[in-house]
Write a structure and sequence with these properties.
alpha+beta
């Protein structure tokens, strides 16, 4: 029992010593922290002076002066040009006046305007137009019949038929846009009709009385074997 009591007392004493030592060290630390001088610098804003960019202002002033000088020089140049133009205009006016006076003295005669007579268009009746149209188309048909060639191979095979050819004739009489409006059963006859108009290629100009610059014409070409 005595041994247990002595053990407890010794443990209690050791704890008490540690506790006291720990408390003393904390107090010293607090004193050290409290006693440290606070190094804080205060800056007064009133004493701080912000320097303005003086160099930039000087450069801006120089640029403004240059621009002003350029504008002034332009105005002066324009005024000088206007003065020169006015002087030249006055000189021309004086010269023209002198010339007019001299011409009126030397040439007192009055010049008359020459009026050209207007062309009188002839009035053509409908009957006359039809006559002119029919004559032109008959000449064209006769030319096609004279130039027409019956293919020998088609004759041998006794191929017959009618081909209607369409084409445009210009004011000068040239053929354009040649095509088949209505073809026959036989390719040889169709080909012969197209070759016929391509070989002719030109005819008489369209008569002025008809008043046409272009004229689309359709002409039938008959291929028949005549028996003797």
């Amino acid at each position: 029992m005595l041994n247990k009591f002595l053990m407890l007392t010794s443990v209690f004493l050791i704890l008490f010593v540690h506790f006291t030592l720990f408390a003393s060290t904390e107090r010293r630390i607090e004193k050290v922290v409290v006693n440290e001088p606070q190094m804080v610098q205060k800056i007064s804003l009133q004493k701080v002076i912000l320097k303005k960019p003086e160099i930039k202002k000087v450069e801006q002033k120089k640029e403004v002066k240059k621009i002003v000088k350029q504008k002034v020089l332009k105005k002066v140049a324009k005024k000088a040009e206007k003065k020169v133009l006015k002087k030249e205009i006055k000189k021309k006016e004086t010269i023209e006046k002198v010339v007019e006076k001299t011409t009126t003295k030397t040439q007192p005669q009055v010049t008359k305007k020459i009026v050209k007579p207007k062309k009188v268009e002839k009035m053509v009746s409908v009957e006359e137009l039809n006559v002119i149209k029919n004559k032109y188309l008959n000449k064209l048909r006769n030319l096609i019949e004279d130039k027409k060639i019956y293919p020998n191979s088609a004759k041998r095979l006794k191929q017959q038929g009618r081909v209607i050819v369409s084409f445009l004739i210009t004011k000068e009489g040239t053929f354009k846009n040649i095509s088949l409006k209505d073809s026959s059963k036989y390719k040889k006859l169709n080909k012969a009709a197209l070759e016929l108009l391509n070989n002719i290629s030109k005819f008489e100009p369209i008569p002025d009385e008809l008043g046409k610059n272009k004229w689309v014409i359709e002409i039938p070409i008959n291929y028949k074997i005549l028996r003797a």
